[in-house]
Amino acid sequence: LLDISYDTECSVLSGGQKQRIFTVILLSFCPEVILLDEPSSALDQYSAEIFIKNILNFSEKNSITPVIISHSQDIINKFSKNTVVLGGKL
């Protein structure tokens, strides 16, 4: 999903690439809880699903509780265990 090398300048990365890198850096600290606001917003549907799946798998293996905010009904339907809806319908 990230076709870049370790010495790639940050200024040439797309928004989606930056978002994925920053998320990976955050996950590397293995916090107890991680709050992600629209982590797949800059990604196409295929990449978004793989990215969310990887976040959830890593979180489960490392006892991290992920809280994901999303407007994507597909992401919500496919990955949520618990859902809170604010100001709308499911």
Describe the 3D structure:
- The longest helix is centred in the middle third of the chain and has 17 residues, at 45-61.
- The chain is built from three helices and two strands; from the N terminus they run H-E-H-E-H.
- The chain has a two-stranded parallel sheet.
- The protein is globular.
- The chain has helices spanning 15-28, 45-61, 73-79, and strands at 33-37, 65-69.
- With 90 residues, the chain is α+β, with helices and mostly antiparallel strands.
Number of helices: 3
What structural class is derived from the secondary structure elements?
alpha+beta
**Multimer state:** single chain
Report the major sheet: 2 strands, parallel
Please provide the count of β strands.
Answer: 2
Low-confidence stretches: none
Using only CA atoms, what is the Rg? 14 Å
Overall pLDDT score: 88
Fraction of residues in helix = 40-55%
**Distance linking N and C termini:** 30 Å
What is the string of SSEs from the N terminus onward?
HEHEH
Shape: globular
Give the strand content: 5-15%
Strand order of the largest sheet: 1-2
